[in-house]
Amino acid sequence: MRRGVALVLRTAFRRHLGLSLLVIVMALVLALMPAVQLRVLGMLVDGVGQGDRISLLPIVLLGLTLGLSTVVNSIQIPFREQLYTDVSGDLLEKELAVFVDAAPGDLSDPGVQDRLRIRRESADDRSRVLLDTLLNVGVAAVTSLGVGGVLFSVSPLVAVLMCAGAAAPLVVMHRIRTVWQRAQEDAAAPQRVHDDLFHLGAQPRAFDAILQHGGGGRVRGESMRMWRVVRGLILGAQRTEALLCVVCAVLTTAFVTAALLVLLRSQDVSVGDMAIVASSVAALATLNQLVVWASGCVEVAQFVGDLDAPLVQRAAAGPSRTGGEPTRLEGIELEGASFTYRGRTAPAIDEVSVRLAASGLVVLTGPNGAGKSTLAKLASGALHPYQGAVRWLRADGTSTPPSWQEVSVLHQDEAMLPLSVRDFVRMGTDASDQQIAAALRRTGLGPLLEAAPRLLDQRVGEGYEGGAAFSGGQFQRLCLARLLLQDRPMWVLDEPTSAIDVAGDADFLDLLRETGAERFVLVITHKELGFEDGDELWRVEHGRPRLLRPAPAGGPGPDAAP
Which residues form a coiled coil (predicted)? Predict the structure, then answer.
């Protein structure tokens, strides 16, 4: 909790100090108004009760306090909203830094996925709620102290009794909260069963299976049984809450009545004092809200505080290459490399020792689930082997650990991010429009660029206003243009021609071979046709690669594992 509160307050005061102070001052004015109004009301009632000519001062003061409260409340709303928006924006920017600071493979961890989901919710909605809650807690606390001070000036004993009457609901509300938490915990399991039966059963395949097996009655009966369990728990909690509210009302009434009786027995009691005590009941009700807001603050702060922690705990980084452009790769060597995905017992890659050459294309083929993608991720540094080692063999004779920052990847199901075509293609670079256009022409998108002169300004995806429509093959070429501009030492391409027709398939592969003279190109595919003698061809089965065709003579020949 402390970390979440500290993060929000630190963001507000460091980056928006003036606005924060203005909002706090206006909140303090509103918080002190109930105490001032009580005192003025007592003066006014005393004047009426004495039968003399009523002084204009209490009337004017009462009118001024009411008017000031209305004016300040109206003015502070847009300023509060501005502060909430600014702080939420700052924290959202902090949350979006995950796209800069994270590494490939981070989201394969379910725990990281959960933290990212929490951050996505916290950065906007929850941070806003937390800041509003903190301000409301402060206002309620100041209001309660001010009203308590006015009551203490009337009679210390009366002040104690009135505060006790106002505090009684705090204990009751805590108990109510506990009752509902327990009910929600007990209802979670049956509610999930009910939801899963309903939603999964409504899917076409499951729906047909239920009908074919004659299981409709069982599904309906079990779903209704779980629903009745949940409703019973909720109704039980509601009945308990109603009973506790009755107890709360009785306690509050008893304390307020005792305070009034004490005041009546006092020798120097005035009508104004009686009015102050009677009117303070509503003002002290802010204590109840104080507990509600404070308890909500605890919950929300726990989520927001996660923004101040790293998404992924990493080991200390080893020595990195320094100085100049990355050296060209001559090959990649895996030595006894093994990798097993979380939650599985069988390794995806099992003690693989191979050397992948860098002459032409290096092609990994094989059936689904054979380990092609895992092998490529190990070779490119997106995954790290649980045992064994992976080394990059560079043209300058050195060997280094894989560095995913030096790798460009073209996925089979590449995300069609709704950026402008310009920003989509130059992602990771500062390429000019001329360089972007040259890359598009090189990948065969020249005709599309000529037909739409403002193509670079259009958003990727026809589902967006002014969006550009791309066929599957055109989109893959668009992604390849991005790789050309990034100009990194290694490319990994997953089914790069899956959406390209047969006529364009050969041209696309020729372009890959052309770029293969400049970098290491690793291709993942199901098919073995269309690749030339200059391409190194591997078949991966059961987590182990087998060399089908070696690199051409004169190149760095692969050493296949037995």
Answer: none
